[in-house]
Amino acid sequence: MRVGLHLGDQDGTGLVEPVGGVDPVSVRRMPLVEVVLLAIAVIGLAIDAFVHLNLASAFEQVKTSTVSQADLFRADAAVAIIAAIGLLVRPRRYTAGFAFLVGAAGLVAVVLYRYVDVGAIGPIPNMYDPYWLPTGKWLSAIAEAATAVSSAALFVMLHRRARVAPRSRVGHAARASR
């Protein structure tokens, strides 16, 4: 049985509705704005992961005795991939919050190390790089900013819906018992 999503708004509710065989466990109604925010966050995380994996080998020589900047780039990419998969598989408040933390932390790090020569911090090497080009840092920063903003908005929307849902279930149960 085919299950898909119809992105049209035929009934005027603004909800994305499953078409085909509806399985209430695996497919749920989701407002279109949440789908758009989810897509922006996932695309931003994918770009972040791609940029960091692509640049990792160029920063192999920036290291301490414990870890290299390339290792940190690969770890950032892995966390971004996990956050993107988490959002796709389970679009909930906790995955949106995790995606926000990944995007915001990456943005803070890239901007900090662009403008401030922090130096080495314990096992973390000195990652100061005063240039936006040609490394693609600007693309990573834009993707991380988009991820942070969209996942924060998604978190708020999911939180509001979760707070309203128990009330509506209680009201529905009261009406059904009459």
Sequence-ordered SSE layout with sheet pairings:
Elements: E1 3-6, E2 15-20, E3 30-31, H1 32-55, H2 69-89, H3 93-115, H4 137-177
Antiparallel strand pairs: 1-2, 2-3
Q: What does the model show?
A:
By secondary structure, the chain is mainly alpha-helical. The protein has one domain. 61% of the residues lie in helices and 7% in strands. The chain has a 3-stranded antiparallel beta sheet with strand order 1-2-3. The protein is elongated and about 55 Å long.
Helix count, DSSP H or I runs of 4 or more residues? 4
What is the helix/strand order? EEEHHHH
Strand content: 5-15%
Regarding quaternary structure, what we see is single chain
| Proportion in helices | 55-70%
Number of strands: 3
Query: How far apart, in Å, are the first and last alpha carbons?
Result: 37 Å
**Unreliable runs:** 1-10, 18-27
> What is the makeup of the main sheet?
3 strands, antiparallel
Spatial order of the strands forming the largest sheet: 1-2-3
Q: What integer is the average pLDDT?
A: 83
